[in-house]
Amino acid sequence: MQLAINIAVLTAIYALIACGYVLIYRVSRVLNLAHGELMMLSAYLLITTASLFSKTPFIALGAAIFLSLCVGVLVYLFLMRRMTGEMVLAAVLTTVALGVLLRGLVVLIWSAQQQNPAQALGWVNHSLPVFGGRISAAGAALIATTALVYVGLFLFLRFSRYGIRMRAAGQNPLLAAQRGISLHVIYALAWGLSTLTGALAGILISLDSGLDSTMVLIGLKAFPAALVGGLDSLVGALLGSLIIAAAEVLMIYYVDALLSDVVPFLVLILMLVFRPWGLFGTREELDRV
Amino acid sequence: MLKRNLMVAAVLAGLTGAAAAQDAYNVGLTGALTGPAAGTYAPAVDGLRIYIDKVNAAGGVNGKKVNLILLDDSAQPAKAAANATRLVNDDKVVLLLNASLSSTFAPTIAESQKGNVPLIFASSVCPKDVYPPANALQFCTTAFAANYDSRAVLDFVKATAKEPVKLGLSAMAIPISRGEIDYAEELSKTLGMTPVSKQIIPPPTPDYTPFATLIKDAGANWVYSWAPWVTQVRTLEGLRRLGWTGDYIAWAHLEAENELARLKDGKLYVVGANALFQEDLPIHKEIAAAAKAANSQYPVNQMAEGWIAGMVIEAALKAAGWPANTDKVTASLSNLKVDLKGLRGGELQWTKDNHFRTKQYYRVYRFDEAKGAIVRVRDWQAFDVK
């Protein structure tokens, strides 16, 4: 049972991060390679809000999540908006530069020392018994949050006005613009939501096991999950995360822990060889890449 | 803020270095002052900077100032190489220091050898060339020591365990950590213990629970981890989340004192070669006062490594006299005794063949839940370094 719980927690981590990659790619065709850094930034924002609202943890959490949403929107408004109409490669390289900048800023502002947001919030990460196994409270929160985020995104994209506009902008931006949809609003919303989901992942991971600047690499490890599932599919991101997480944990359990680090990329290579558009991606979308 | 201060200090030191070179001891350091690894090294370097500032304020060494040039390598070998080249060739340092990841050692050592400049590893891991028979130019002040640490740990476990020891082992997937845990695994067998699980954990790992599950399921009642603090503490937290109630022993890195207080885990032991600041020795008060006066933003209890390096540099330069050159400094380092005033279990002594120390002392601490404080579990235990 513990094996299943461990896979579920890791799947939730990767899925929550991977949906951020998918949201931006699906709408704007841009691979956001600064997603890991934005996730880390959000966790560090929690350190600051926790010190400002030390007696009210929920306000500190809410403030950090709201600030992260704002950061995502601001990144679009002040940086990525200028990339509209440029080559996709230029936009991707811009996100790489943004990532380098954020990494430097985080160390300058918060230092490279290990931080413990849970301690700053006065919160204890209890261990909970589940079906004969055990899970940390933060791990359980990760699974619940991932489920809520995916259900919420499904409902938002399927039924809400802005969700439908996002899908339209993703499918045919020219036609969508001609129909009166403001692409800049839609893209800004996508960046905001993507950063928000990354923030949830970063904050919950940091509450579970502390925070330092190596969190960026966790963001990178979730990238294969998004690619395996198909970069334009949220269902694919979820399934891709499950495949990558299961491969990683099973490798730790039954083969060699050292291989757990490379197995996500091995799965990715296999997928790229046999089905480069991913499990739920579409050929057309990949051609555009 | 402090990172910025360190970088400004580094730039200013670089700008003023040439001018000061003629009338001061030039000492250069390449270290991980920024970047992901900085948390381990920057506090120690700040301790060193504060110590040297104190020495200069008191008139310097042999009436001459010590011009400490700090260069940031962000733990990147290429930057360390450029720094070492500059320090040796342009700044004409009489002593080189490394406070960075082991991946920066090769280029730093290469410049040290080319320029015949002695090199001290201060807060970075001690390379094997400082142990007997030592390389003529390499020295190390850092507390932790491969093999000796595991001997001390397992000696403590053997003396403390009330039942047969089933040992779990945890390392980070980096050569130094893996090598030490491999050594500990073999050593534990000779001491009558049963190693039941050895986890080599890749950095970074989003969730340590799978590794902890394997250790717990193997039936370990003691777990030993010798790795960067992040791996040590996250493995422990993973185990506790699974309801594991055994004893856990780890190396007392810079972060240990604050982390013991945070975790409040009575069965977490840390073994270290530096006295924790909760001992409140006069030297600890001196460091705290100096750090406060210098407005350092690093926790004062993470500065002992830098302070010790400063004491060693001061003693070596004093013995080398004025004017000093690299040969004189090397000679003084090779025959050095420094009273560390309680920061470690005894004096630091280097000889011609031993550039680590002739005796290595270990103390064990844990958090006492009843007292609500960190307590000493075992006092200094000496091991001869041969």
Mean pLDDT of chain A: 90
Please provide the count of β strands of chain A: 2
Which regions of chain A contain 5 or more consecutive residues with pLDDT less than 50?
A: none
CATH fold title of chain A: ABC transporter involved in vitamin B12 uptake, BtuC
CATH architecture of chain A: Orthogonal Bundle
Mean pLDDT of chain B comes to 91
Give your account of this protein's structure:
The complex is a heterodimer of chains A (289) and B (386). Chain A is an all-alpha fold and 289 residues long. Chain A has helices at residues 2-28, 35-52, 57-78, 88-110, 117-121, 137-159, 161-171, 173-178, 183-209, 215-229, 234-254, 263-274, 283-288; strands at residues 127-130, 133-136. Chain A has one domain: ABC transporter involved in vitamin B12 uptake, BtuC. Chain A is built from 13 helices and 2 strands, in the order αααααββαααααααα. Chain A is globular and about 55 Å long. The N and C termini of chain A lie far apart (41 Å). By secondary structure, chain B is an alpha/beta fold. Chain B has 2 domains: 2-144 and 280-358, Rossmann fold, CATH 3.40.50; 148-273 and 362-384, Rossmann fold (3-Layer(aba) Sandwich). Chain B has 12 helices and 14 strands. The longest helix of chain B has 20 residues, at 38-57. Classes of the chains: A mainly alpha (289), B alpha/beta (386). Chains A and B meet through helix 1, helix 4, strand 2, helix 9 and helix 10 of A and helix 1, helix 2, strand 7, helix 7 and helix 8 of B.
